[in-house]
Design a protein that fits this description.
One of its GO terms (molecular function) is cyclic-guanylate-specific phosphodiesterase activity. Residues 444-597 form the GGDEF domain. Pfam families: EAL, GGDEF. The chain is an alpha/beta fold and 616 residues long. It has three domains: 23-257, Alpha-Beta Barrel (TIM Barrel); 285-413, CBS-domain, CATH 3.10.580; 429-610, Alpha-Beta Plaits (2-Layer Sandwich). Helix content is 41%, strand content 20%. The protein contains 24 helices and 21 strands. The longest helix has 19 residues, at 69-87. The chain is globular and about 95 Å long. The termini are far apart. Residues 1-9, 270-282 and 608-616 have low confidence and may be disordered.
């Protein structure tokens, strides 16, 4: 057995692992949401179990240091194909390649065919993924690689789209068959409106380009149902199975139940945390600012290395002269070059400008969001990989990342299209109607509950609009607290009127809990003397002296059947009948009234006949 040099780590060299066939493959299922079938598996490589080189990150980091990364990729592909053939499973095999490794395959068509047909695996079952670590200096030159792959029978995919080097310009130029959305955008998408909007934009572009989307990183039911209801076809993640040498051949019962869940997702763009501030349409670049040290022009490459080692989370470092940025050094590019044999000895004491980008993307703090959006749409996509420099009146202020830029622009776009109540930030009439339409279109049963506050106007007159607004915000908070965010939709119709579209099974208990919580909590908005008196003295609508009790909550509910019946009518009819139930609830001692399905259908039929929309 070959022994490693004592001066080096105890871990064997990558070439030795390849020669001794000590690499192994694991597979993670990729699931088609329609029917829950496994459409394929992503092949992933592992080093010897229990060693420092077991993980892919350790393997490829070591290969990069040894200058044999492409050889490791080829060996990993061979290992995955061989193991996949032995599994004898149905579906496609997804293989990861860097741009450099794919170019090598394209240069040798015979080798490409040999790999794709290895062990009798049909090339049409292979999907080659371009990994996010790849840097394409000229996407046009890479097109022949795609042509060669498709000529051999394989499909082409962009991996981890939305991060690092996976840009929209790359999507346009390479026209992939499959685009895998990075797990960053999928994790917690059920509660993050920015991620939801970003993925919806990807979905629109996929429909236009004909690419199939795969959502990576799905780990829980809430995220799965949102992605499913958005119309994305396929997914991958721990909810379906972790990478394993003997992967599942069918979807687990729990995952199948999640895919078949009867309730419709409440999309996160329709909600907002109560009390959070609305960002200005002219959001400044300073919101993306990452405070980071800079280096002078005369700094050496050793200085750069020391800074990166000292600050492991720093993605880049700016080079400045008289406080003005003159270059940017990206960590990954620098480390990749510096890891090559003898580069530290040869270049360590030389000026850092040798490995720097002398024309970095620069964003002034005063740049408007419209200008940022133009930057996103430009052909210059360097900021996604390198990041960019942020200046204040031309002087270096800090760094930014492509992720932060996308997030800032997306946030403003969401604000512009929110259609939300300006006081509570809850969805208004347009998103309420839209969600009712989604429920009806999917034949999902639900309860439409109209909420109103009794004696609110006298309170508002007595204490003023400011205190009245506080009561409305309290009501919104109480209602939000009883809703299950992924199932129950809460909207603010206007004034003291709210609408909840319940899909939770225990909806009645939730509604009654809201009434109790509000009725008890609302008393704190009154002066001590009026709390003792049980209300306030005022005038009714005709000007007559009247005593008004405390502000209380009334909820009128309508059952909408999952198919047929009331669901044949539109959002206007459903809201109208729910409002009628609310008027009844205002006179009920409990403050709660439910109109059953038969009566609600009859009422909606009458509402439809009287509606000005009925003839359209």
């Amino acid at each position: 057995m070959h022994l490693c040099s004592p001066s080096r780590s105890a871990a064997p060299r990558i070439e030795e692992l390849i020669a001794r066939r000590e690499l192994s493959a694991v597979f993670q299922p990729i699931v088609d949401f329609e029917g829950g079938a496994i459409l394929g598996y992503e092949g992933l490589i592992r080093g010897p179990a229990g060693t420092p080189l077991e993980t892919p990150f350790a393997l490829f980091s070591q290969a990069l240091a040894e200058g044999c990364a492409i050889e490791l990729e080829r060996a990993a592909a061979h290992t995955c194909v061989d193991a996949f053939a032995r599994l004898d499973v149905d579906g496609k095999l997804f293989l990861n390649f860097s741009a450099g490794a794919l170019r090598r395959l394209a240069d040798d068509r015979d080798e490409t065919l040999a790999l794709l047909r290895r062990r009798g695996v049909d090339p049409q079952r292979i999907v080659v993924e371009l990994t996010e670590q790849s840097t394409l200096l000229d996407a046009g030159e890479f097109l022949p690689v795609i042509v060669a792959l498709r000529a051999a029978g394989a499909q082409f995919a962009l991996d981890d789209y939305g991060t690092a080097n996976a840009s929209m310009s790359l999507w346009v130029r390479l026209q992939p068959d499959v685009v895998k959305i990075d797990r960053f955008f999928i994790h917690d998408i059920a509660s993050d409106p920015l991620k939801f909007e970003a993925v919806r934009a990807m979905q629109h572009f996929a429909q236009a380009s004909g690419a199939q989307l795969v959502a990576e990183g799905i780990e829980n039911e809430a995220d799965l149902i949102v992605v499913r209801d958005m119309g994305i076809d396929c997914g991958q993640g721990y909810i379906f199975g972790r990478p394993h040498a003997q992967p599942a051949r069918c979807v687990t019962d729990s995952a199948r139940d999640a895919l078949g869940a009867g309730h419709i997702a409440v999309f996160p763009e329709a909600t907002r945390a109560l009390g959070s501030a609305s960002p200005s349409g002219s959001m400044a670049s300073e919101k993306m600012l990452v405070t980071a040290p800079a280096l002078p022009r005369h700094a050496t490459n050793n200085d750069v290395l020391e800074l990166f080692n000292h600050l492991p989370d720093l993605h880049a470092v700016a080079v400045v002269e008289r406080d003005e940025p003159v270059a940017l050094i990206n960590r990954r590019s620098f480390m990749d070059r510096y890891a090559l044999p003898y580069h530290r000895e040869l270049f360590g004491k030389r000026p850092c400008m040798q490995f720097a980008n002398a024309s970095p993307v620069v964003i002034e703090k005063s740049m408007s969001v419209e200008q940022m959006a133009k930057l996103l749409a430009s052909d210059d996509q360097r900021y996604l990989a390198d990041g960019f420099v942020i200046t204040d009146n031309g002087k270096y202020a800090g760094l930014g990342t492509g992720e932060n830029l996308v997030r800032a622009v997306t946030e403003v776009r969401i604000e512009a299209a929110r259609y939300a109540n300006p006081l509570t930030f809850l969805p208004g009439n347009i998103p309420i109607s839209s969600h009712i339409g989604r429920l009806l279109g999917n034949e999902a049963g639900f309860y439409a509950c109209y909420v109103d506050l009794n004696h609110f106007k006298p309170f508002n007159d007595q204490y003023g609009y400011w205190q009245g607004d506080e009561v409305l915000k309290f009501a919104a908070a109480v209602l939000a607290d009883v809703c299950e965010p992924t199932r129950d939709f809460l909207g603010h119709v206007g004034g003291d009127d709210f609408l909840i579209l319940f899909q939770s099974d225990n909806w009645r208990e939730r509604a009654l809990q809201a009434i109790r919580a509000f009725n008890e909590g609302a008393q704190r908005f009154y002066a001590p003397a009026e709390r003792l008196a049980g209300g306030i003295h005022g005038e009714d609508r005709r000007g007559n002296p009247t005593f008004f009790g405390f502000v209380t909550m009334a909820i009128g509910c309508v059952r909408v059947e999952p198919a047929g019946g009331a669901s044949e009518y539109g959002s206007e009819q459903i809201a109208s009948v729910a409002a009628l139930a609310k008027r009844r609830a205002k006179h009920a001692t409990s403050g709660f009234v439910l109109i059953d399905a038969d009566e609600s259908t009859a009422l909606m039929r009458g509402q439809a006949e009287a509606s000005p929309l009925a003839s359209e």
